[in-house]
């Protein structure tokens, strides 16, 4: 089972001639089953052989991102690639039909991207300049028209006085222009201070929709416009050299350079307005032509080409991503002369497939260079293989839950297999309600069956649920199932199978030999002691589920130790841990079930808590009210035996393993310090000294540092082993108590969910059912809406998240801590198809 344990991996070395490196890596990328190993992770990418190619790909992607922004600006919809494998086949056919080396296709596409980027950017800049010009001309025309309305024709008919000395006293000058709306108050204040109140200032808003109304109806570039105002300043005197005018000019220019000269006559004004109208019409004509040409060019990028069912722009982008991905993986290899060498992990059984790919790599190429070769090698001591599982749409979300805590170690038992059932089940125990679980189930089924339609609705909240639709469905299914077990429908008990009780003398009498078919008898939930009964039932059920869950985790630890042949951990950790858990909390679960199955006379039910306490504090005394009816001696014998086993298990966990490991380290130390091994090392180093002195010095330093490290480790290993084992023992013993108590959250969350549902029902529905008339109907409708909103917001949203997080905690801490190492790393296959699918915008 590839989901129970990760796939078997083999380590291979890869040797590729430099001339065929691109072709070989391209074929391996199409296979998608190799996990490439970086020969030197500390080496920066810029110092690697193909860093320049990666940089060129990044530059091309940057240019394509600029084009993508323009496409969105002009509201062009791209057709994203749904079948990346079909696109890869098209790339392969193009490379085979070109009669040129495969890597040269990127050179051609790079030039094409550069050319398209330059042309489109130039047209876009021209269009932007034309729009700015039309804005400026339209604003200028509007300013002149507004100023003419404000000043009137009297400004053109000021007569020249007979006395030249009175000229400045009779004439008035004017300044007009445009400022930002936010500067209006500051402009008035400064004008008043400069002229000391001897100038008339009028400011009128220029509405944005009037500035370029005709332009906005024909093109939409999402151009933000700032509110603007027209200012008109009339001051005494028309002499251009006057001090007052110079001050006013400086103030106006300090606010904005957009100051407009007011014509001296009516004829000049009319000619100016006519000239501006002509310029606007010419600019609009140029805008339409430029816009049409630009849209034609952009439409070429958006259209489907070559039968790939995606836009040509997407073909260019995905090909550049593919090339970058290839060169990044080529950089993981080391160059030695004219060949590239490197290592990779490969799932077992795919060696023949890789060899066929290498053998056929050069068949369709015009070049006849040697192809690559692979050879299986043995991993170094302590080198772990990557973890690889065959996941599908059902198992993926559950494996992600596990991987968020930590990736499984290579070949260890994968908790994801059990999480497929246990996670939604424990969620259902906490969220148990027939109605709420059914709503959650319907939501999951809706996303499953309408997946294709929801994919196209990127703004829908259901779109984000698509990867987790099966998890959502199982959560709803188990919540519905546990709601049937609890017989809880919006805090109402359902009479589905009748009842085993009948009323007698204002009390409920139980029928003889009657067993309720499924779930909880509705009479219990209708009685006055329903809360006490359900609390006791849910609390005990939570303990049984928790201990069973943890015992299963301990069993998985035993499976791991046997698989890895770690018999020391099997006998010194797994067996005592299993015995301790079974003899304490497993025994408590057995007592709970035994009490459920036994009918005690006169209502004298024994206390399980008292029994567990007396098992330790009064180990020699028989129970007054034993769980085993009329058989207290048997119960005492069993409890004494289980107590002895549990107590013995603690030192069994603590002492044997450190003692055995400590003796093994001493023997290992004697073997390393044996003179004959030192002699062999010195002879080997002496022979290497004659070959390469620098290499010998380097290896000598490494050997010296390693020996010093080994000696220090041998001195401290024994103490570290004892400390580690002591921590493990204390953590397990105390954790057994705390983890068992932690599973009581199953009871607490279920209680909180039921009580909230009951409060909402009583406050919004139950009290309004007996109201009659029109007012009663309206009030019932209103409170039903309130009830629905509270149910959706609190129970279907907040409580779902709360139960999800608590189920997550139970798996990560209580269950997985019993066996799960979580120190592995994921298998990342060198796969074009997977990379393109992840980078596809669809």
UniProtKB/TrEMBL annotation:
Sorted UniProt keywords: Coiled coil, Hydrogen ion transport, Ion transport, Membrane, Transmembrane, Transmembrane helix, Transport
Predominant subcellular localization, coarse grouping: membrane
Transmembrane segments: 425-449, 470-487, 541-563, 575-597, 634-655, 781-801
Coiled coil: 106-147, 266-293
GO-annotated biological processes: vacuolar acidification
Gene Ontology, cellular component aspect: proton-transporting V-type ATPase, V0 domain; vacuolar proton-transporting V-type ATPase complex
GO molecular function: ATPase binding; proton-transporting ATPase activity, rotational mechanism
Membrane topology: Multi-pass membrane protein
Compartmental location: Membrane
Record has Disulfide bond as a keyword: no
InterPro entries for this protein: V-ATPase_116kDa_su (IPR002490), V-type_ATPase_116kDa_su_euka (IPR026028)
Function of the protein: Essential component of the vacuolar proton pump (V-ATPase), a multimeric enzyme that catalyzes the translocation of protons across the membranes. Required for assembly and activity of the V-ATPase.
Family to which the UniProt record says this protein belongs: Belongs to the V-ATPase 116 kDa subunit family.
Name of this chain's protein: V-type proton ATPase subunit a
Species for this entry: Paramecium primaurelia
């Amino acid at each position: 089972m590839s989901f129970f344990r990760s796939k078997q991996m083999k380590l291979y070395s890869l040797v590729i001639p430099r001339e065929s490196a691109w072709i070989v890596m391209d074929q391996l990328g199409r296979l998608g089953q190799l996990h490439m190993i970086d020969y030197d992770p500390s080496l920066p990418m810029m110092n690697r052989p193909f860093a320049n190619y990666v940089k060129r790909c990044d530059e091309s992607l940057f240019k394509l991102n600029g084009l993508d922004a323009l496409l969105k600006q002009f509201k062009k919809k791209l057709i994203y690639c749904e079948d990346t494998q079909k696109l890869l086949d098209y790339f392969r056919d193009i490379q085979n039909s070109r009669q040129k080396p495969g890597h040269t296709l990127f050179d051609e596409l790079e030039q094409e991207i550069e050319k398209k980027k330059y042309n489109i950017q130039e047209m876009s800049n021209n269009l932007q300049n034309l729009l700015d010009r039309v804005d400026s001309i339209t604003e200028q025309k509007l300013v002149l028209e507004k100023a003419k309305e404000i000043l009137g024709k009297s400004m053109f008919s000021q007569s020249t006085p007979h006395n030249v000395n009175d000229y400045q006293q009779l004439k008035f000058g004017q300044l007009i222009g445009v400022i930002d709306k936010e500067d209006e108050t500051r402009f008035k204040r400064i004008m008043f201070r400069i002229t000391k109140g001897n100038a008339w200032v009028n400011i009128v808003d220029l509405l944005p929709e009037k500035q370029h109304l005709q332009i906005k109806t024909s093109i939409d570039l999402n151009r933000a416009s700032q509110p603007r105002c027209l200012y008109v300043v009339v001051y005494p005197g028309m002499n251009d050299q006057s001090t007052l005018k110079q001050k006013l000019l400086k103030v106006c220019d300090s606010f904005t350079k957009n100051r407009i000269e007011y014509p001296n006559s009516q004829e000049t004004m009319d000619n100016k307005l006519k000239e501006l109208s002509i310029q606007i019409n010419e600019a609009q004509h140029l805008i339409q032509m430029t816009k049409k040409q630009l849209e034609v060019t952009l439409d070429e990028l958006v259209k489907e080409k070559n039968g790939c069912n995606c836009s040509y722009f997407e073909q260019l982008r995905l090909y550049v991503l593919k090339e970058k991905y290839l060169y990044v993986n080529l950089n993981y290899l080391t160059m030695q002369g004219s060949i590239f060498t490197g290592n990779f992990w490969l799932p077992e059984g795919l060696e023949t497939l890789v060899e066929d790919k290498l053998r056929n790599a050069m068949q369709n190429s015009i070049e006849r260079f040697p192809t690559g070769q692979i050879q299986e090698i043995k991993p170094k001591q302590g080198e772990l293989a990557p973890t690889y599982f065959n996941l599908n749409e059902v198992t993926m979300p559950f494996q992600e839950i596990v991987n968020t805590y930590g990736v499984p170690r290579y070949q260890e038992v994968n908790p994801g297999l059990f999480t497929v059932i246990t996670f939604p089940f424990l969620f259902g125990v906490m969220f148990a309600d027939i109605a709420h679980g059914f709503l959650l189930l319907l939501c999951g089924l809706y996303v499953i069956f309408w997946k294709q339609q929801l994919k196209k609705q990127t703004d829908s909240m259901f779109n984000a649920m698509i990867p987790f639709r099966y998890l959502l469905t199982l959560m709803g299914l188990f919540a519905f199932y546990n709601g049937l077990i609890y017989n809880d429908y919006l805090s109402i008990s359902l009479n589905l199978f009748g009842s085993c009780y009948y009323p007698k003398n204002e009390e409920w009498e139980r029928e003889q030999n009657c067993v309720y078919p499924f779930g909880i008898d509705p009479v219990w939930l209708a009685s006055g002691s329903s809360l006490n009964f359900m609390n006791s039932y849910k609390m005990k059920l939570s303990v049984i589920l928790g201990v069973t869950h943890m015992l299963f985790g301990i069993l998985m630890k035993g499976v791991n130790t046997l698989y890895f042949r770690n018999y020391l951990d099997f006998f010194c950790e797994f067996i005592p841990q299993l015995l301790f858990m079974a003899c304490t909390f497993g025994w408590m679960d057995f007592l709970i079930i035994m009490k459920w199955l036994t009918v005690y006379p006169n209502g004298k039910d024994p206390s399980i808590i008292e029994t567990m306490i007396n098992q330790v504090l009064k180990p020699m005394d028989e129970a007054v009210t034993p769980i085993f009816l009329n058989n207290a001696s048997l119960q005492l014998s069993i409890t004494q035996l289980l107590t002895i086993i549990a107590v013995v298990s603690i030192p069994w966990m603590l002492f044997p393993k450190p003692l055995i490991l400590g003796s093994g380290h001493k023997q290992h130390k004697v073997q390393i310090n044996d003179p004959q091994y030192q002699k062999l090392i010195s002879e080997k180093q002496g022979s290497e000294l004659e070959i390469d002195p620098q290499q010998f010095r380097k290896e000598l330093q490494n050997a010296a540092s390693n020996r010093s490290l080994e000696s220090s480790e041998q001195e401290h290993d024994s103490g570290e082993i004892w400390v580690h084992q002591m921590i493990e023992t204390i953590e397990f013993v105390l954790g057994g108590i705390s983890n068992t108590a932690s599973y009581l959250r199953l009871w607490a969350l279920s209680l909180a969910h039921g009580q909230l549902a009951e409060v909402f029902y009583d406050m919004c529905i139950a009290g309004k059912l007996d109201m009659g008339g029109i007012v009663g109907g309206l009030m019932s409708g209103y409170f039903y809406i309130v009830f629905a909103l509270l149910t959706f917001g609190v129970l279907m949203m907040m409580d779902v998240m709360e139960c999800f997080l608590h189920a997550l905690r139970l798996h990560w801490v209580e269950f997985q801590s019993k066996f799960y190492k979580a120190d592995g790393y994921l298998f990342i296959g060198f796969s074009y198809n997977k990379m393109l699918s992840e980078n596809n915008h669809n």
